[in-house]
């Protein structure tokens, strides 16, 4: 006997998800997970943990500057402050980052990449970019609603 499923009201008056919507969502999730697996395996092959690569990328990716605060990194990495401090400690111990006093605020600390951290990014990031290019279509989020038909 089939179990009855309650249809929950959709936000903004949208129609309930169709079978095709679920299939598109599943394909997209698979593509994201495939990319993440590629990333995890690639950085490990180069002697880093995925978390260290994410940290390096978060620092280098700060708009307009070459450093970040621990608070900014915690936000970017979606980690708690104390977890980010521990990650920075481990990365510093591995020679990937260093802490530098903020010249404008003696209480603040900047986290910057070391030469080794820069080199690791210069090797790993092009590999990630190339993989994203190969997966571009699969990593494009599905289109929903009226936009899905190309209108």
UniProtKB/TrEMBL annotation:
Xref: Gene3D superfamilies: Winged helix-like DNA-binding domain superfamily/Winged helix DNA-binding domain
Keyword Magnesium: no
Gene Ontology molecular function: DNA binding; DNA-binding transcription factor activity
GO biological process terms, semicolon-separated: response to stress
InterPro entries: HTH_MarR-typ, MarR/SlyA-like, WH-like_DNA-bd_sf, WH_DNA-bd_sf
PROSITE patterns: HTH_MARR_2 (PS50995)
Protein name: DNA-binding MarR family transcriptional regulator
Organism, scientific name: Actinomycetospora cinnamomea
Limits of the HTH marR-type domain: 18-151
Keywords annotated in UniProt: DNA-binding
